[in-house]
């Protein structure tokens, strides 16, 4: 650290020459923990995003055979009762629940969740960081802890319903209110609780990042999930690089030029 950086007043942005980009493989312990938590949330979210595929396929299949009428009756009677409309609709709901719950934390660490950002957008970096820090301390983390606790109670109660002593741990439990619905309702309720835990982990990961940004050395630069460093503001939007149309190459012109060069070479 230079003497100028050491004597820098709190909140003042260091000059570009004084900034230190931290190596992701040699991060301080607190940021290394944040990165591991963030990587876990990222993997869970990417896994959960695949449930969009069965959700679309089951919904389209259900609508298709329901419109024919006779095909659904034939499938239920000759293939499997799982082709019944009630079972397919509950599979759709369950796939949507898994998709939603597992990508909640993913959306937060990639800053792609919805923000009603009328004031924060125009504030200075440290004010944005303080809003994020206080929001995590006062709202996201406490709220998620409370809701996750009741979600686990909700799942446990579902698991305990209709449980005979002879039942294995994965048997019995709450079933659908419909006589032809799905069983093991506690599984999807447990997924809801797990998704809230993933959101909590995402909140802790971002909290560690913001805490270092506010209270750590001002010349450190590292990945921030929900904020842009002062020198990088305007270069990203919702966690993705902003495309500058004035500076970006003209793709059509580039292709036309490449096509012209190929034609000249052939001649």
From TrEMBL:
It comes from the Bacteria. The chain crosses the membrane at residues 44-65, 93-110, 131-156, 192-215. Keywords: Membrane, Transmembrane, Transmembrane helix. This is TRAP-type mannitol/chloroaromatic compound transport system, small permease component. It comes from Thalassobaculum fulvum.
């Amino acid at each position: 650290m230079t003497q100028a950086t050491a004597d820098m007043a709190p909140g003042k942005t260091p000059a570009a020459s004084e900034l230190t980009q931290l190596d992701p493989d040699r991060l301080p312990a607190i940021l290394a923990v944040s990165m591991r938590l963030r990587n876990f949330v990222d993997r869970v979210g990417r896994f959960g995003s695949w449930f969009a595929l069965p959700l679309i396929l089951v919904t389209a299949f259900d609508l298709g055979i329901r419109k024919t009428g006779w095909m659904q009756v034939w499938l239920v009677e000759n293939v499997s009762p799982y082709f019944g409309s009630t079972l397919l609709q509950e599979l759709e709901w369950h796939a949507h629940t898994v998709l939603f719950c597992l990508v909640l934390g993913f959306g937060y660490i990639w800053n792609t969740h919805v923000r009603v950002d009328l004031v924060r957008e125009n504030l200075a970096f440290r004010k944005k960081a303080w809003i994020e820090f206080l929001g995590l301390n006062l709202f996201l983390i406490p709220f998620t802890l409370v809701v996750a606790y009741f979600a686990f109670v909700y799942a446990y109660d579902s698991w305990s319903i209709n449980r005979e002593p002879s039942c294995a741990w994965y048997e019995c439990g709450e079933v659908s209110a419909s006589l032809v619905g799905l069983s093991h309702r506690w599984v999807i309720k447990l997924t809801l609780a797990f998704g809230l835990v993933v959101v909590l982990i995402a909140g802790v990961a971002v909290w560690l990042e913001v805490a270092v940004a506010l209270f750590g050395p001002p010349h450190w630069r590292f990945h921030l999930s929900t904020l842009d460093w002062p020198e990088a503001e305007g270069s990203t939007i919702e966690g993705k690089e902003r495309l500058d149309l004035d500076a970006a190459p003209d793709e059509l012109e580039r292709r036309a030029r490449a096509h012209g060069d190929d034609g000249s070479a052939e001649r």
